[in-house]
Amino acid sequence: MIRGRFWLTALMCVGLVGCQPTVTHYDLPNHRVQTNPALGHPHAGADYPAYKRMVWGFYWPDMPDWSRETASDTWTRLRLVRGDMVLTVTQLSGDSGTVLSNVNRWRRQLGLNPVTTATMIPKTYGQTQYDTVVLRSGASHMRVAQQAVGADQWFVKLTGSDPVAMAAVWGEFLSELSLTEVQ
Amino acid sequence: MSRIGVLLKQAFHAVAGLKIAVVGLVLGFVLVLVGTLDQVNLGIYYTVKVYFKSWWVYWHGWPVFPGGMSVGLLLGVNLVLAHIKRFQWSMKKMGIWLIHSSLLVLLIGGAISGFVSQESQMIIREGDTQWYSESVHDTELVVMQAQGETTRVFQIDMANVQANDSIVMGPLVITVESRLNNAILRLIDDANRWQSAQGAGRYFSVEPRPVDRRPDARNHMALWVRIHTQDGTDLGRFLVSSWLNHPQWVGDRATIALRPTRYYYPYAVTLMEFTHRQHPGTTIPSYFSSDVIVTDGSFRQPFHIYMNHPLRYQGVTYFQASFDDADTVSILQLVKNPVWWSPYFACLVLGVGLLWHMVLMMGRLR
Q: Å from B99 to nearest chain A CA?
């Protein structure tokens, strides 16, 4: 009697442990499969810029000598520092202010008096045109570039004391910067 | 009677006996007690999964106590066999018979529901069309291989995959080197790429995180895997993670992804408009709804889904659950439970049985 119960219980346990699902498969029309050919395409190798866009929402060139710092606000998407040079990329949705209000804000940051009229000069870096402004207050310099992407306004700002080094970094960075996401 | 016949008869009487019923009920009682207490640590989803939707309760990898499925099966089998053993067709026993039948319907309905019911979310942006929903808690490993007009998807539930497992998935043999149940990936600087890995593994560092057991929390699993072709060619070491949620190419014929478990449907749901209204002066939602169009072959029908007014289509119920991304994304909660009626039916049978038995007893008392 006892042996019978034991074997029955043992058989049930083995049966239950053995109920393990395996690999299954199904077919889908190609248009229903989510793919991103930019990510690791077989002929291009794994694509670092694509991953960078995927994670950050935009791509910027590698800056090996710069250190990336965490920004204290949510709209600053990137903050890079080298010596006294600080490079930030900011994304604003909706109303981002007029040219005059923005220029006066940057002037205030440099300790300059506000102006009553202001313009930003269109300049092309790489394939992209930006509205730019260059400001100076004593030894402090500031360069700002603005680009609209969809409903968002992106601002790139570089501050520092060495205008030559800043000019070199500025052109290199903006030429490779891409503010559009991979679709 | 042969020896086997005697053994079967003994087994039948043992399993149909009252002792087994008592043992089953005690096991069930302990399980419910411990599961309820542990809910503080595990949260409701993991408690149900670990204690009740399982054959065994594991502790440090060892099965230490029968799970809800085992106890339910034991009680169900005991109930059925006890009925077969003692069944007498009489009006006097009808009430008892109905009461026990309702318990059986509850047990079987619960077991079927545990196996086949699905809860998932369909996340759609305004103007987009969606064919699948995703599980909040479960993760699947998929290998996709294009075959002309279609793509063959090989899928395995990650609940069944452990470190050091080797899995044959279509054209690939995948060996799991390590597994993290929750981790975030950080993009490393390009200059520090890890050349030893392929795909995303070259660019990301993996930071383990404790598993978040809150009911709506999404954990991101990460695996380091080594992939070979079926003929033994080493394709390299890959990092796959549901945090990435994008397929990566492996070689030039297949892609691999670790992602929330997907449930595909033979029809499409298009979100035409999402509406979100708030109580004046607050951010508390007063009303949110989704206007969708269901396209199923030549069938094309608009539906308005709003709070407590779900869409029911082909056995799936679509509830308006949440929204995202400045009110442009609607999150629908999908529930598929083919035996949703079983508790209602069991309660009906139970009520009839109790009434029958009560009337019978009252007649005797008189």
A: 27
Contact A150, B326 (CB under 8 A): no
Q: Which two tokens stand for residue A51?
A: 């991953």
DSSP, collapsed to helix, strand or coil, labels residue A4 as helix
A62-113 pLDDT, tens digit per residue, is: 888 899 888 888 789 999 999 999 999 999 887 788 999 999 999 999 999 9
Q: Quick check: is A122 in a domain?
A: yes
* B92 reaches A (C-beta below 8 A): no
Higher pLDDT, B337 or A6: B337
Domain count, chain A: 1
- pLDDT tier for residue A7 given thresholds of 50, 70 and 90: low
Residue B289 in tokens: 């709804």
What are the boundaries of each domain within chain B? 3-117+341-365, 118-130+264-336, 136-262
Q: Are the Cβ atoms of B152 and A36 closer than 8 angstroms?
A: no
What is the Cα–Cα distance from A20 to B88, expressed in whole angstroms?
Answer: 39
A80 forms bridges with which residues in the sheet? A68, A87
- Is pLDDT at B121 greater than 50 in this prediction? yes
Residue A53, classified by CB atoms within 10 Å of its CB into exposed (0-12), middle (13-18) or buried (19+), is: buried
Q: Indicate which CATH number applies to the domain containing A92.
A: 2.60.120.1690
With CB atoms and an 8 Å threshold, state whether A64 touches B189.
yes
Q: Which residue of B has its CA nearest to A8?
A: B11
Query: Do B187 and A25 lie within an 8 Å CB cutoff?
Result: no
Q: Is domain B118-130+264-336 given the CATH code 2.60.98.10 in the classification?
A: yes
Q: Print the domain residue range for A142.
A: 35-179
pTM metric for this prediction: 0.73
Can you name the residues that pair with B162 across neighbouring β-strands? none
